[in-house]
Amino acid sequence: MNQTVHSRRRAAGARPVAKRAKETSRTNDPARTMADILDVALTEFAEKGLDGARIDQIAAATQTSKRMIYYYFGSKEGLYLAVLEESYRAMRATEADLHLDDMPPEAALRRLVEFTFDHHLDTEPYIRVVMAENMQRGHYMAQSQSIQQLNVPAISAIEGLYARGLAAGVFRPGLDAIDLHATISALSFFNVANRHTFGLIFKRDYTAPEVVAARRESVVQTVLRFVTA
């Protein structure tokens, strides 16, 4: 037997060992495995929807198995709900790092609007999944035991920010924190959800840096002028 055949056999024999090493590594770090699955699943659900998404594709992209995905999430629907929950959790966790209480009210409100705009702009898969869930009339989100609690800090932050602005005399009275949150979210969400159709209709590239910057400042000014006294 020549050296080339020996080399091929050695190479062929090495592959299962490497694969087992990866599987062992993932088994020993379930948190990382689950995070990888959720990350890939977000894109899969965003691109194909719940019905079109394939667990096989998610398993292949994460170098795991369907069995492992079902072990962690129970079903494709369970994975879809986990993706929704993780998307909201990640956004709220980042919001908490803004330290809005350390800024004057107007500066804090500007920072919150900028963050929301940037987050939505940078996470189009998140926008698509939320759009899809709205088409389902919130059917799967209604089954979540955590999403409502995940979003409580967002409203609490706006309530505190608004109260400080009222006390300082820079915000006008009579506004509702949930309504203000909806306004900020709507303006930021629309910028991503409708940019393709809007761009085609009005012949404007909503991904161009100068257009993004102008739109971002327009959203900020819209909210500030609505809230300030």
Structure description:
The chain is mostly helical and 229 residues long. The protein has two domains: 1-74, Orthogonal Bundle (Arc Repressor Mutant, subunit A); 83-229, Tetracycline Repressor, domain 2. The protein has helices at residues 3-27, 30-52, 55-62, 66-73, 76-96, 105-122, 124-135, 147-168, 177-193, 195-202, 209-227. The longest helix is centred in the first third of the chain and has 25 residues, at 3-27. The chain is globular. Residues 1-25 have low confidence and may be disordered. Residues 54-73 bind DNA. InterPro entries: Homeodomain-like_sf, HTH-type_TetR-like_transc_reg, HTH_TetR, NicS_C, Tet_transcr_reg_TetR-rel_C_sf. Residues 31-91 form the HTH tetR-type domain. Keywords: DNA-binding.
Radius of gyration: 23 Å
Number of strand elements: 0
Number of helices: 11
Q: What is the H-and-E element order?
A: HHHHHHHHHHH
CATH superfamily assignment of the largest domain?
Tetracycline Repressor, domain 2
Work out the helicity level. over 70%
End-to-end span in angstroms? 88 Å
Shape: globular
Number of discrete domains: 2
How large is the share of residues in beta strands?
A: under 5%
The CATH architecture of the largest domain = Orthogonal Bundle
CATH class of the largest domain: Mainly Alpha
Topology-level CATH name of the largest domain: Tetracycline Repressor, domain 2
Major pleated sheet: none
Average the pLDDT over all residues and give the rounded result.
Answer: 89
Low-confidence stretches: 1-25
Broad structural category = mainly alpha
